[in-house]
Design goal:
This protein is an alpha/beta fold. It has nine helices and eight strands. It has a single domain, classed as Aminopeptidase (3-Layer(aba) Sandwich). Bound molecules: N~2~-sulfamoyl-L-arginine (0X9) and zinc ion. Belongs to the peptidase M14 family.
């Protein structure tokens, strides 16, 4: 059983997914979409009222190992959706949810056992430094700005686009659905409190930037009203820095998913990646507000 008063190990998060699927079989199911470099399962939790024609929303967390608030927030959101299901507004229940709380399971475990600030996956490169930055390994403008060809760099892009099973199986899974299925792709990271939309690879903006910006600002202002916390909104490249090969850019540019966002959870730097667990609930609520706002936009088709 998970609590949101501590950070949890991978096995506990996977047990939570299985427990939810077993306890709420009418709305929940689980699927393993592939295995990581070290052969850990890449597990997702699906939540649905059973209508295959609902729009889909993909949520992933834990792509960067040390960003522990991300899996914590994503599991918090999943728990809220499930426990509150009967009372949820239509725009939340008429969505098929695909939730992947730990997309970098090997790195996540390594950050618990060995190096708290590990970021990449655990790909071995022989005698060179291990690890690929999964958020530089997706296949849209792969290898561009803000990526490194050197295995020792924190932003090592890998040997080619989707060279890593953790990114490959996400793209394979999503690409297996009809193109209109997924209407939102939400990647949870930390830290800095930003809501970011494409593009990340360069300073250009998408044609529908106004829609992406409006929904992000809406979420930001509701979060500020409810928890007092501020999220900065803008495109990834202009707001943070250009970085190619991100999951959000792939979702937007290749998978054709309209609402592609990266949200950087708290804090703004006091604790950074090593955020004390007492901050999980607040971040969880902020994450839920973000997801709720995006789902409302999806339901309204705008
Ligand atoms: O650099 C990243 O991958 C993300 N920031 S983090 O501190 N969590 O590492 C930002 C990614 C934004 N999206 C793209 N650049 N595509
Ligand atoms: Zn990150």
């Amino acid at each position: 059983r998970l609590t949101w008063k501590a950070y949890h190990r991978l096995q506990d998060i996977h047990d939570f997914i299985d427990y939810m699927a077993k306890t709420y079989p009418d709305i929940c199911s689980t699927e393993t979409i592939g295995h990581s470099v070290e052969k850990r399962p890449l597990k997702i939790l699906k939540i649905s009222n059973g209508n295959a024609r609902n729009p889909g929303i993909w949520i992933d967390g834990g792509m960067h190992a040390r960003e522990w608030i991300s899996p914590a927030t994503v599991t918090y959101v999943a728990h809220q959706l499930i426990e509150g299901w009967e009372q949820l507004p239509e725009h939340m229940r008429n969505i098929n949810w695909y939730i992947h709380p730990v997309s970098n399971p090997d790195g996540y475990e390594y950050s618990h056992t060995t190096d708290r600030l590990w970021r990449k996956n655990m790909r071995s490169h022989g005698r060179q430094c291990p690890g690929v930055d999964l958020n530089r390994n997706f296949g849209y403008k792969w290898g561009g700005k803000g990526t490194s060809a050197s295995p020792c760099a924190q932003t090592y892009r890998g040997s080619k686009a989707f060279s890593e099973p953790e990114t490959f199986y996400i793209s394979k899974y999503i690409s297996g659905f009809p193109r209109e299925t997924f209407q939102a792709y939400l990647s949870f990271h930390s830290y800095g409190q930003y809501i970011l939309y494409p593009w990340g690879y360069d300073y250009h903006l998408t044609k529908d930037r106004a829609d992406l910006d409006r929904v992000a600002r809406q979420a930001g202002s509701i979060i500020t009203k409810s928890s007092g916390v501020k999220y900065t909104v803008g495109s990834s490249a202009t707001t943070l820095y250009p970085a190619a090969g991100g999951s959000d850019d792939w979702a937007k540019g290749i998978a054709g998913i309209k609402y592609a966002y990266t949200i950087e959870m708290g804090d703004t730097g006091r604790y950074g990646f090593v955020l004390p667990a007492r901050h999980i609930e607040r971040n969880g609520n902020d994450g839920y507000t973000f997801v709720d706002t995006v789902a409302r936009a999806v339901a309204q088709g705008r």
